[in-house]
Amino acid sequence: MKKAAFLSMDSLENFECYDHLAFEPLNQFGWIVDEVSWRNKYVDWNDYDAVVVRSTWDYQSDHKNFLNVLEEINQSSAHLENELSILKWNMNKKYLSDLEQKGVTIVESFWEKEHHMGKLAEYFDKLNCDEIIIKPNISGNADNTFRLNKNILSSESLHECDNQLVQIFKEREFMVQPFIKNIITEGEYSLFYFNGEYSHAILKKPKENDFRVQEEHGGKLTTTEPDVHLKNISENILSRIDGNPLYARIDLIRTPADEYALMELELIEPSLYFNMDNEAAKRFASAFDKRMKLI
Known about the structure:
The protein contains 9 helices and 13 strands.
């Protein structure tokens, strides 16, 4: 039997994780899978034939050490997926700018190196909108993500909000986007690809009075079948990646201009929602095994 490690974190207690659904399908292809925390300093990566980055949902708080671990794995005899160059590129959300330059439609965005008191009005003016989203360039699970209404500028809480942003984004790069209301009314589409082949898709909507679509924040998921247009957009995005990832999750939203825009291209640690499609875990196991046989 061959051995694979699914890279995870110390505890998944407060998270919804479905990676275990792939263990038995992988076992049928001759693979034994261990779930290993990326913070485990005692693991010998040479003991594994492959290491797949999966539920490392706390790396954003310590991304430099996380990157060091990925480098260590990459230098071992284990094969790392997704490949290191893809992981490095995808870690900072400025990859969206790279894709935009290649012709991909993204949600309008601009990037800042740090926040200063009094700059909030400038953000609203730049995007010419009444609601904005602010989030770190390196982030996950909607941590330190803010949805702000323009009314904050004349509110008594402006100073408190501004000061909070200064504390969080002091010497920390972040991005600003308009808030797309379709995230609430229609939802966010996620399409999943394994080794370049379409697998399944879901629609994610936030709970009432929220904007975050993650299950951990009360988001609701439904299985959906994307139309040809949505698939074509996703496959065009995949074709713009330098490399061929084992797994990819493409998050798209319909804009006020009635076109689909890329919210996120998840190539590091996306939930693959094996629970939403009975064949998804089997497709992943088959794609992984075929890929490993070519190495």
